[in-house]
Write a structure and sequence with these properties.
This protein has one domain: 3-Layer(aba) Sandwich (Rossmann fold), CATH 3.40.50.300. 43% of the residues lie in helices and 18% in strands. It has helices spanning 11-24, 44-54, 71-74, 80-90, and strands at residues 2-7, 31-36, 59-63. The protein has a three-stranded parallel sheet, sandwiched between helices. It comes from Klebsiella variicola. Its EC number is 6.3.3.3.
Amino acid sequence: MLMVVGIQEGCINHALLTAQAIANDGLPLIGWVANRINPGLAHYAEIIDVLSKKLPAPLIGELPYLPRAEQRELSRYVDLDMLGNVMAIDRIPA
C-alpha cells in the first residue's frame, strides 16, 4: 500500500492512524508521499521530519504545492525506483 499524506495541521496523527489501520488489515505499507496542500504552512519541514521518523515505511517523494498540477509534472517528485526496490524486497520469500 502506498500512502499519500496531505501535509497540514493535524496530519501527523491522521497519518499514524492510517498506517496502523493498514497494518491491522494485514497489508504492507511500502512507502508514503508527502503532498504539500498549503504553501503557507509554517512547520512543513518539521512535520516531514516527524513523519519520516514515526512511519514504518520510507518517504518516496514530496509533491510541492502546485495550484494546477498536471500528471506528467508530478512524476518528477516521486522516486519510483525506490518504490520498485521496496516492492522487490517484499516479494522475497521468507
